[in-house]
Q: What sequence folds into this?
């Protein structure tokens, strides 16, 4: 390590990059577990003799508690130290994921999913907050691209492999294997304990200070639009993606392996292009990329609505994934500049909003699905299209500093750090 201006040991570039890759590994396995469930809803429906709508509740059973718990973990990290919370949460993820295999009914699966969501939610949001501390804002897009690329990689491999492995190792074997992988990642993480601990100074304050901190995060136009878009966009993507397996089964008669192959395109853009998308955001600005990402999401939903030959299913999944990869990571980059002295609180609120949106989107889509895929996809696509059009105006100030200086807005001092 080297010393910074305050005389505190700061990580070297090599140490930062090594830690970044370890954070990406932990993020990958957590999102693998989260997304391996949705494609096996039809299989679990048969195994437990339960309706698909009921089985589908195991998705929000994980996502909503995950989102709620991030608020608590963010506060604890600011007070007790980010390293302690991250390591305990990763251990809980590994243990609870493996224990899910003991469930004897779909209700028990849902209960274990609730507990896993509560236990696992201290890793990814704090990892994102840690990136906000280790990398300056103008370099943060690439680093966040690594983490969101790992999220996308977890989706990319978790979705198809979850569906494809169940016929061979069973759903119980799937959970045991992922739990063991989580334990392995935890062991590899241990050497980075001091580096993580040295990156944060615990924050003290009363509960009133913490409450005012949340109010300050959503008390500016920039905070309101950013967190608002995190919610709406996550609802769209979770709603559509959660039920893609059921969509392919009903529309094309696909089995588990076919569903897995159809979902191969999902997550690939973020896994391969996450850092590149981040660099593009750093260079050209989030104002230029966010509307494109929202428009691509709308395009994918429109394709699902009108239908297409089954052979193009991976391509549609890829476009849907690219829409996510060009929106949520860029929004998270904005959030890292909102937190000030409480980065854990800011990112905790971001991931809370993200996963509450995931859970609500899955539930709402499932309810509208009672009227058919047409109304469900049509309503979700309409909301996403409206968000795309509004983003052209709402995020027009999210430009890099060099672009701000050249734009008319820059002359009036309006930039990424101001409402």
A:
């Amino acid at each position: 390590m080297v010393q910074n201006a305050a005389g505190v040991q700061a990580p070297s570039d090599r140490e930062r990059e090594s830690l970044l890759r370890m954070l990406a590994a932990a993020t990958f396995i957590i999102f693998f577990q989260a997304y391996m469930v949705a494609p096996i809803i039809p299989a679990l429906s048969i195994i437990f003799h339960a309706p698909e709508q009921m089985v589908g509740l195991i998705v929000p059973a994980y996502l909503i508690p995950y989102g709620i718990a991030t608020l608590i973990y963010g506060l604890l990290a600011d007070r007790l130290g980010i390293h302690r919370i991250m390591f305990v949460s990763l251990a809980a993820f590994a243990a609870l994921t493996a224990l899910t295999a003991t469930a004897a009914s779909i209700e028990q699966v849902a209960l274990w999913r609730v507990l896993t969501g509560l236990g696992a939610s201290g890793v990814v949001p704090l990892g994102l907050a840690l990136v906000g501390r280790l990398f300056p804002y103008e370099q943060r897009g690439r680093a966040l691209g690594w983490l969101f690329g790992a999220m996308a990689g977890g989706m990319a491999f978790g979705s198809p492999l979850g569906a494809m492995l169940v016929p061979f190792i069973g759903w119980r074997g799937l959970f045991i294997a992922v739990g063991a992988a989580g334990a392995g990642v935890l062991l590899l993480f241990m050497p980075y304990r001091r580096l993580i601990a040295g990156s944060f100074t615990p924050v003290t304050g009363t509960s009133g200070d913490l409450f005012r901190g949340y109010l300050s995060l959503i008390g500016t136009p920039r905070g309101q639009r950013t967190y608002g878009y995190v919610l709406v966009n996550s609802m769209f993507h979770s709603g559509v993606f959660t039920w893609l397996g059921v969509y392919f089964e009903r529309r094309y008669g696909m089995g588990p392996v076919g569903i897995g192959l159809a979902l191969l395109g999902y997550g690939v853009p973020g896994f391969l292009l996450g850092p590149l998308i981040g660099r593009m955001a750093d260079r050209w600005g989030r104002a230029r990329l966010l509307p494109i990402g929202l428009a691509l999401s709308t395009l994918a939903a429109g394709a699902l609505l009108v239908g297409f030959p089954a052979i193009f299913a991976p391509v549609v999944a890829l476009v849907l994934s690219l829409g996510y990869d060009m929106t949520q990571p860029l929004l998270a980059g904005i959030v890292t500049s909102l937190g000030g002295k409480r980065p854990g609180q800011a990112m905790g609120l971001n991931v809370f909003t993200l996963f509450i949106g995931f859970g609500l989107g899955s539930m709402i889509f499932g309810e509208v699905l009672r009227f058919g895929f047409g109304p469900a996809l049509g309503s979700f696509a309409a909301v996403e299209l409206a968000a795309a059009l509004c983003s052209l105006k709402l995020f027009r100030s999210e430009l890099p500093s060099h672009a701000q200086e050249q734009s008319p807005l820059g002359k009036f001092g309006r930039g990424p750090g101001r409402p």
Q: What stands out?
A: The CA atoms of residues 9 and 162 lie 43 Å apart. The chain has 21 helices and two strands. The mean pLDDT is 83. The first strand starts at residue 2 and ends at 3.
